[in-house]
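// run 5 | inverse folding | seed 20
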């Protein structure tokens, strides 16, 4: 079918966006709307002694000024961390109370101190400048290793040593791991830094709150990855409202990358201000604020050891992670560094593992989910460690992987952290990727590069990630009076193309053309709870569509039998219609819906299905990167990039390639360019604009060679595995392994941390 599953259909939504017809939060004009501006702390750590707002409140156009004293007076709740955690000693993790406006202390540059509401943005900014803020500075700590030292400044009295949690992966077997290391012929260790990143989606965060005095309800329109995940904490925890008094709508979204998955203080503040003023209030973040206040990603320091026998087979793995949480626990602050630790063994047969994660507070922006949310960190660790082991044992990086990768005849395989990996051809994928990258021809290319004065390196990474699990997703199919269907979903479209993929599923299952399908998302009054993230839209949401479509066909068959007075067994369904076998009599789904409606049975064909994930999926593949470094300048160029991926069943190969491209760009961005840097003495961010924070560019990439070697997943009815984050999972380790391979022959280098900037590479090559 032209628009069905497996077809490279161009995204239907792109015409709207590329012609400027999208409707983002900042496009929405409300008559008489007021504008909010957030006054943020310019101090990384200090006691908040005074916030004087009298002069600001008296300025022209100013309608309201809110501070931490108002938060205390009205007993607003804190921005919550959603996940409890049990420490390895059986105690519960610490709390890091985070009021929506600072009350007695500030803990990072960018923390909200006051909200000013005025009739124009210029007047709100002017009033914010008139607020007198007095802060008694306190000592600052920004580095995660420094924060756990005995003499480090402490951010919270209830968090001794700044350690919010000290957690052992509860699926691990510590005694078995100890025995594996005792029996090892060789132990290889590594220490890595997973650098801090800013998400930087095209659309910065925003919020528009409206209040209806007739029913006392507020409506918040805001960019998000799932409006229920914004409404519920605002209503339940921060403003303490009945949920029915707050509606959250998410219109078009200009990118998210995990950063927009959960609630922020500003969203609650705008609703609060609107309810106090009984008027509409709008806040739009600018890019400078985004660098300071958007949740950051990554920022781990990891030490690991791999125990091997004399033949290079892996026996045991020990991992110790220091995760920088920032100044406060974000909604997912505990989840990201802990639950994805299940993936530290990668795709290897490792007998036992012991994984410890300590979450640490520092005077930096809070850290939360960012594309991959723990899986890139896990893949980076194991793939860098395996490469180092190969060098120390004197065997090829491909050979050590081949000796230890999970065999197809072992699947489903339960790994050392009790993950059940259901399907894949891991060594075959690696070998295919090597062939397509011309691995055997690399020595000649290296020699040719050396003749030109260049250092050439090749690196590989065999990756996996975990997708398609977590919370349920629901799909509802509604036949409308105008001869269309509405597909109502809980998750939202923020640039991933899921709207097109969902329509392809409808076309495949029901034979309904995409132009007759309207996707309805992003409204807590209309849509079920859902979340776009974790590459789970198709594995969970798509599976719900599959089941809802089957219910439509079952209902339609019964209704068609009644309408055409024929046994259901004599009906054939195809192309959105039922026909009587052996005749030309047929009736379409839309005619059936109209007939039922006229008979007083409105909604007779409508269906709804809530999919509860049975088990995760495990996308996997191999990345091979070939690059050159100019020893005189340290500049680096990627010359070849080859990928073979297993994504299970492919719904749309064109969009899938786009997702892989995007993930690789972000992964390479982390490996070579992006890095958040703070001044260690003051806590001031030194990379708070695009002038200082280097984003990846088109000129940084060659053509990407992507091949699919799909093995259908067995844990969901579509057989899909998820592709949205795979590029970001595999790229960093492949790139950095190639960097080490280029530098090792001339500098003896075995370890280097991201980002491998030109300055860093030049410094390694010119140590004097």
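// decoded
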């Amino acid at each position: 079918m032209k628009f069905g599953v497996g077809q490279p259909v161009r995204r239907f939504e792109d015409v709207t966006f590329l012609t400027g017809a999208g409707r983002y939060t900042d496009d929405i004009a409300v008559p008489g709307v007021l504008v909010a501006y957030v006054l943020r702390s310019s101090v990384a750590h200090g006691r908040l002694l005074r916030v004087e707002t009298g002069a600001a409140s008296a300025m022209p156009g100013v309608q309201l000024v809110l501070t931490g004293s108002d938060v205390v007076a009205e007993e607003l709740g804190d921005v919550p961390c959603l996940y409890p955690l049990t420490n390895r000693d059986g105690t519960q993790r610490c709390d890091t109370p985070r009021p929506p406006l600072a009350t007695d202390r500030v803990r990072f540059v960018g923390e909200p101190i006051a909200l000013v509401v005025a009739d124009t943005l210029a007047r709100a900014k002017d009033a914010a400048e008139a607020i007198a803020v007095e802060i008694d500075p306190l000592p600052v700590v920004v580095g995660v290793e420094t924060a756990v030292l005995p003499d480090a400044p402490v951010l919270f009295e209830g968090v001794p040593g700044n350690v919010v949690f000290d957690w052992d992966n509860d699926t691990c077997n510590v005694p078995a791991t100890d025995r594996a290391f005792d029996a090892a012929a060789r132990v290889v260790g590594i220490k890595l830094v997973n650098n801090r990143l800013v998400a930087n989606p095209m659309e910065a965060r925003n919020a528009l709150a409206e209040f209806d005095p007739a029913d006392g309800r507020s409506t918040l329109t805001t960019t998000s990855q799932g409006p229920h995940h914004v409404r519920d904490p605002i209503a339940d925890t921060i403003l303490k409202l009945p949920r029915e008094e707050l509606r959250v709508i998410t219109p078009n979204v200009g990118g998210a990358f995990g950063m927009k998955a959960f609630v922020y203080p500003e969203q609650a503040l705008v609703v609060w201000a609107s309810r106090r003023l009984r008027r509409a209030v709008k806040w739009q973040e600018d890019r400078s604020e985004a660098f300071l206040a958007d949740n950051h990603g990554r920022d781990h320091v990891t030490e690991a050891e791999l125990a091997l026998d004399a033949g290079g087979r892996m026996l045991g793995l020990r991992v110790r992670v220091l995760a920088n949480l920032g100044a406060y626990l974000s909604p997912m602050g505990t989840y990201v560094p802990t639950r994805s630790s299940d993936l530290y063994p990668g795709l290897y047969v490792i007998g036992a593992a012991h994984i410890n994660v300590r979450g640490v507070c520092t005077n930096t922006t809070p850290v939360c989910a960012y594309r991959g949310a723990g899986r890139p960190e896990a893949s980076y660790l194991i793939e860098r460690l395996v490469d180092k082991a190969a060098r120390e044992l004197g065997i090829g990086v491909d050979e050590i992987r081949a000796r230890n990768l999970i065999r197809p005849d072992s699947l489903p395989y339960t790994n050392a952290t009790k993950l059940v990996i259901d399907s894949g051809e891991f060594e075959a994928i690696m070998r295919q990727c090597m062939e397509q990258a011309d691995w055997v021809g690399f020595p000649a290319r290296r020699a040719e590069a050396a003749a030109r004065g260049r250092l050439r390196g090749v690196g590989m990474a065999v990756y996996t990630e975990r997708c398609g699990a977590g919370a349920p997703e629901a799909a509802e199919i509604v036949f409308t009076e105008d001869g269309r269907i509405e597909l109502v979903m809980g998750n939202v479209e923020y640039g991933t193309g899921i709207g097109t993929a969902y329509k392809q599923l409808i076309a495949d299952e029901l034979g309904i053309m995409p132009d007759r399908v309207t996707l309805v998302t992003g409204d807590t009054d209309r849509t079920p709870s859902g979340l776009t993230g974790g590459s789970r839209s198709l594995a969970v949401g798509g599976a719900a569509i599959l089941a809802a479509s089957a219910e439509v066909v079952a209902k339609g068959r019964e209704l068609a039998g009644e309408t055409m007075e024929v046994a259901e067994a004599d009906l054939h369904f195809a192309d959105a219609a039922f026909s009587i076998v052996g005749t030309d009599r047929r009736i379409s789904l839309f005619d059936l819906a109209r007939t039922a409606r006229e008979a007083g049975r409105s909604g007779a064909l409508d269906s709804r299905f809530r999919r509860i994930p049975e088990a995760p999926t495990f996308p996997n593949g191999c990345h091979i990167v070939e690059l050159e470094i100019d020893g005189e300048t340290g500049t680096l160029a990627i010359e070849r990039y080859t990928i073979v991926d297993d994504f299970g069943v492919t719904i749309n190969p064109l969009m899938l390639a786009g997702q892989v491209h995007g993930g690789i760009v972000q992964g390479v961005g982390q490996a070579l360019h992006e890095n958040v840097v703070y001044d260690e003495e003051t806590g001031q961010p030194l990379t708070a604009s695009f002038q200082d924070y280097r984003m990846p560019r088109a000129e940084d990439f060659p053509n990407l060679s992507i091949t699919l070697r799909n093995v259908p997943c067995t844990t969901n009815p579509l057989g899909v595995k998820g592709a949205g984050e795979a590029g970001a999972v595999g790229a960093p380790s492949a790139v950095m392994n190639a960097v080490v391979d280029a530098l090792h022959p001339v500098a003896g280098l075995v370890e280097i941390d991201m980002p491998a900037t030109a300055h860093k590479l030049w410094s390694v090559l010119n140590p004097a």
